[in-house]
Amino acid sequence: MPTIQLHTPIPGPKSKALSERRAKAVPRGLSHGTPIYVAKAEGAWLEDVDGNRYLDFAGGIGCANAGHRRDAVVEAVKDQLDHFLHTCVQVTPYESYVRLAERMNEVTPGTFAKKTIFVNSGAEAVENAVKIARAYTKRPGIIAFEDAFHGRTMMTLALTSKTHPYKAGFAPFPGEVYRVPFAYCYRCSYSMKYPSCDLYCARHLEDTFKRVVANEEVAAVIAEPVLGEGGFIAPPPDYFKVLIDLCHKHGILFIADEIQSGFGRTGALFASERYGIEPDILVTAKSLGGGLPLAAVTGRAEIMDAPAVGGLGGTFAGNPLSCAAALAVLDLFERENLLTRANELGDRFQRRARDWQRRWPIVGDVRGLGGMQAIELVQSQETKAPASDETKKITQYCYEHGLITITAGSYSNVIRVLVPLVITDEQMDEGLDVLESAIATVCSQKGAVAQLV
């Protein structure tokens, strides 16, 4: 029996009613990608309040790598509920926080001594990484990248690249943030080609120190090993090694934002491992908590100890329920073949998507690492003009036919895959069938419109 089961038009009557209530109660600034309301989730599927069942290729924007409501995670949370809910670790600490910090220090890249602090969200983790880097280096500057996304708080908005809808109307932002082009090979800022470019975009950092900000004023360079909201852009294999060597040459720290790329998404526990790098500070969140809010900042011990006693923390940071869930998630990655599965799913997606690229000019680029895959949609493969409207139509077709997808990219023309890694081959193919049908339908409609014109 197929996983997708639709019993009403999408959205159904109960979802429509909830949308009407939402419009009166919730500000419009909180958008949502689909008009359905979830009642239940398991593994790789969601069920809405009208009884319709969908395959989930969004995974809570990367929070469900280990699957929705995994038994081990649910049991760990239930067990913690029987003990205590909250004490505030800064007042009366608890063992699970320490144990989870020890685990994070063990599993993150780098053989050096590390320390970890927990906070509530990815944006909060990035904020603390910046604080720690500035405290350690005694420098103010932070270099971030074009097409980066690091969060929605004021400091992280300064680091984030995409203007609409994230930054427009919220200025001014914190200062001492400088932006440089990323290794976006499909749309190279320097009109070069890899590998003949000799990683010009990475080496251009030296020019930035001469023309934009002095190297002795820069505390850290922050980057997502694979851009998330920016469009699932994976740089060439040697890019980060060159970049980090330049950073360390000038006493600059490298912060890896692994909020979306971490916890098995790319076929390694952390994408940094795919690039053979050891970040000075590594930031994680999303799938760390197995569905509960939790984020971490892990780094070299001497760097993490730079802030004064009491300089880091938060009332709910490292909540005991979230710590229990995260420990269960790490156990799942030790017991199960989720990393292998991520690579299998990536290969499965690539085979289908490469075929789409040959059949339909709208599919401009197919890219990704492991289970972190995407297609970039364009008006033509020659011009690469973004097909933003068509992307919106494809995602709508998908949810109307039982597949939850989300977009990405500075031009909102990328469809990204964040499917829970526990999805079966049959479910994966079922979802890809819907996506393929969506592309075919939109391309057919586009062709019909072109003929009319």
From TrEMBL:
<comment type="similarity">
    <text>Belongs to the class-III pyridoxal-phosphate-dependent aminotransferase family.</text>
</comment>
<protein>
    <submittedName>
        <fullName>4-aminobutyrate aminotransferase, PLP-dependent</fullName>
        <ecNumber>2.6.1.19</ecNumber>
    </submittedName>
</protein>
<dbReference type="InterPro" id="IPR050103">
    <property type="entry name" value="Class-III_PLP-dep_AT"/>
</dbReference>
<dbReference type="GO" id="GO:0042802">
    <property type="term" value="F:identical protein binding"/>
</dbReference>
<dbReference type="InterPro" id="IPR004632">
    <property type="entry name" value="4NH2But_aminotransferase_bac"/>
</dbReference>
<dbReference type="InterPro" id="IPR005814">
    <property type="entry name" value="Aminotrans_3"/>
</dbReference>
<keyword id="KW-0663">Pyridoxal phosphate</keyword>
<dbReference type="GO" id="GO:0034386">
    <property type="term" value="F:4-aminobutyrate:2-oxoglutarate transaminase activity"/>
</dbReference>
<keyword id="KW-0808">Transferase</keyword>
<dbReference type="InterPro" id="IPR015424">
    <property type="entry name" value="PyrdxlP-dep_Trfase"/>
</dbReference>
<dbReference type="Pfam" id="PF00202">
    <property type="entry name" value="Aminotran_3"/>
</dbReference>
<dbReference type="GO" id="GO:0030170">
    <property type="term" value="F:pyridoxal phosphate binding"/>
</dbReference>
<dbReference type="InterPro" id="IPR049704">
    <property type="entry name" value="Aminotrans_3_PPA_site"/>
</dbReference>
<keyword id="KW-0032">Aminotransferase</keyword>
<dbReference type="InterPro" id="IPR015421">
    <property type="entry name" value="PyrdxlP-dep_Trfase_major"/>
</dbReference>
<dbReference type="InterPro" id="IPR015422">
    <property type="entry name" value="PyrdxlP-dep_Trfase_small"/>
</dbReference>
<dbReference type="GO" id="GO:0009448">
    <property type="term" value="P:gamma-aminobutyric acid metabolic process"/>
</dbReference>
